Amino acid sequence: MAKVIVMPKLGYTQDTGAIAAWLKAEGDTVERGEALFDVHTDKSVVTVESSAAGTLLKIALEPEVTVPVLTPVCVIGEPGEDAEAALKNHKQLEVADKQDDGLDDLDEEETTEAAPADVDVKDLKITPRAKKYIQENNIDMASVAQIEGTGYEGGICEKDVKASPLAKKIAAKEGVDLSTVKGTGVNGKVMKKDVKAAAAAQKAAAPAAAPAPESKDDLMIAETKPYAGVRKIIGDRLSQSKFTAPHLYFTDSIDMTEFFAFRKMINDMGDVKIAASDLFIKAASKCLVKFPEMNSSLQGDQVITYKSTNVGMAVAGDNGLIVPVVKNAQSKTLSEIASETRDLVSRAQAGRLAMDEYSGGTFSISNLGMFGIGNFTAIINPPEAGILSISSVRKTPVVMPDADGNDTIVIRPMMNVQLSVDHRIIDGLLASQFVEYFKELLENPIKILM
């Protein structure tokens, strides 16, 4: 029997996808587990293997067309089978499923699939606030187990429990912040009508749109494209970070004279070429070990401090900004970090990173020095507590003592760094100590390896 293959959902945040390239053509024989097509996800390109064996009867989606996940993309079956009939039958089953779910007429009687009665809250990935809400309101754990969490790495948050599935869908569509909606359901649960009322109030309060230009010559549009995919993911995450975490900034200048001499020496001696960014990662890891409170995150009402120093490095690729992560940097040699970063950056720029390679960071570095930027401010990559901005090295006149202790003006290669921290959990003294220790390591680079 012919099988319909759909656009896969490859991550918690992925709602859409697009075929990057078909690896098989119509009429080709396909084995189960064989590479079938490449798909653009929110942040990378992933090769998808076939879940069926047979002949590729029909390609239903052309490359570079963005569609919702679970949209049919092709049909695999035996030669002579009717691919169009298989697609039509698949669509009819989808309609029947939606009618069974009652999504068209569902109002306050929203349900979820049954789950095992012995589900325990400790078996679920759930925030402390959500756990407290469940316990205080005696909510059935069987229904909680079916909730798709919207928190970090798919964790179930309080708002996920307090809002019905349909209410969450409508809120996402209408751009309503569920945390601001008062629920009228059982135990204060946010229902469909609550979100619709909030959306109506939000639209009524919105300022009137600016009048359209009288003539097309007044505003010449070069291009219009959807705000979606990786650009939307970046925007949503950074907006959440900026408007949720109060940012505090700490800036200093670093004399890079000894740093460059040290890097030249180790590159002359070693087989693996060490980039400046490799030394930055190792130095940041050393700082995180010395000041473990910086290696933390605020999740719900819990401050989590990590033993691993997983340092992310912002990389601009064809699909937008992505932050590959060097994990457990504290236990890796400089050569190991150099080899890993070279591979990660190369595949990040090509959009070929696996999801676990750009998630799980505990601290990030954003280096724009190669672009000649003198100073800039970076937004924290949630749920991390800090990000270090590194700018270009510039020859700068500075005041330094001479051999006799007298002040003299000399020209030095100086580099600005700026640390952005989440002021909810990081205080100014700790952030200052972190920056000054990072400066000490770069101005005395042998200490990075000690």
What does the secondary structure layout of this molecule look like, with pairings?
Blueprint: E1 3-6, E2 16-22, E3 29-30, E4 35-40, E5 45-49, E6 54-59, E7 66-68, E8 72-77, H1 83-101, H2 128-136, H3 141-144, H4 158-162, H5 165-174, H6 192-205, H7 229-244, E9 247-255, H8 257-269, H9 276-290, E10 296-299, E11 302-305, E12 311-313, E13 315-317, E14 320-322, E15 325-326, H10 334-349, E16 363-367, E17 386-401, E18 407-422, H11 428-443
Parallel strand pairs: 12-16, 16-17
Antiparallel strand pairs: 1-8, 2-4, 2-7, 3-6, 4-5, 6-8, 9-18, 10-11, 12-15, 13-14, 17-18
Task: Describe the protein's architecture and organization.
With 450 residues, the protein is α+β, with helices and mostly antiparallel strands. It is 30% helix and 23% strand. The chain has eleven helices and 18 strands. The chain has helices spanning 83-101, 128-136, 141-144, 158-162, 165-174, 192-205, 229-244, 257-269, 276-290, 334-349, 428-443; strands spanning 3-6, 16-22, 29-30, 35-40, 45-49, 54-59, 66-68, 72-77, 247-255, 296-299, 302-305, 311-313, 315-317, 320-322, 325-326, 363-367, 386-401, 407-422. The strands form five sheets. Strands 9-18-17-16-12-15 form a six-stranded mixed sheet. A four-stranded antiparallel sheet has the order 1-8-6-3, with helices on one face. It is globular and about 90 Å long. It starts with a strand and ends in a 7-residue tail after the last helix.
